Amino acid sequence: MKKLIATLLLATALAACGGENGNTAANKPQPQVISDAAKGYYCTMNLPEHNGPKAQIFLESKPDEALWFSTVTQIFNFVRHPGEPKDIAAIYVTDMSDATDADWEKPLTTNAKWIDARTAHYVIESRYIGGMGTQDAIPFSDMAKAQAFVAKNGGRIVSFDDVPDSFVYANPVVGVPPQPASAPDAAASH
What is the pTM of this model? Predict the structure, then answer.
């Protein structure tokens, strides 16, 4: 009985810590609308000039300031790169589940629907070319719509934690730091 009570207390304490880096839903930064002044973190180009899905990251040290990403794949570089901040409070990606044909051809700004990046289903290795002229990880909240996208455009579906380094670092983008030598796939790719 004491073991059960101890386990329940531990579980309650861990649940109270909240989500990503201790954030609960109540204090987690909320996604922002892409403004005309929003610039990509790596490329420093205007976000509204790029088509396709986007991403934003909030740091605990700057909870009111979104770091914007011109492509979704760039967030995986940010999260994995040892030189980037690790005090991540929230990561959001554009949900492409309900995107219209027009949404794929123009920048998603005020009409973008944002979802937690860690819960999204990602289509990688498809024929879709993202806003920076390279393949992108396409996020979906709805698995059935991700599967329909794969049936039409090829690729495969993976979770946030299963996006491989070989995909993240295969498409160099101006301003993105090169793959760190300590990355898990680095030794295998030489």
Answer: 0.77
